[in-house]
Amino acid sequence: MIVWLIGLSGVGKSTIGKELYKLWKTESKPTVIIDGDEMRKIFKHNIGDDPYSIEGRKINADRISNLCLWLDKQEINVVCCILSVFKESRKWNRDNYSKYIEVYLYASENILCNRRALYDQAKKGLIKNVVGVDIKFDPPSDSDLSFNTGLNCESPKIIADKIYQKVQKFS
Known about the structure:
Elements: E1 2-6, H1 13-24, E2 31-35, H2 36-42, H3 54-73, E3 77-82, H4 87-96, E4 100-106, H5 109-115, H6 117-123, E5 145-148, H7 156-170
Parallel strand pairs: 1-3, 1-4, 2-3, 4-5
């Protein structure tokens, strides 16, 4: 099974993903966590502007989707923390993974700007290719779960618990 945690930078994908991974790995089946930023480093696709362009993001997304498929075919559970900019990639996931849960995480623009300096830098023109500023992000309309991770929201552990409850229903 693949659990796909998506949302803009700073929304808490990795933090919630790590909590979910801790819960899920206690099962007998192997479970791994994949983080989009870590995959960029592994594939040496994280230097300069090109990897963060639309084309570079598509390459990274396709690599991660295919890696998840390879793990899924080996019956390895995956918690994948990724921006997931491309609607067609999310559709491909639904069509190809044995079991797939898509979780959309979101927070207000103010919260995200307070959490990540890259938004302010992009708005000032100091950096480019930032999803949510100069690259459009279309929130998914058909996620299985969604959580606001802004102020006064549930803790990452509680959100991970709720996602894990959904995972258990699919198992």
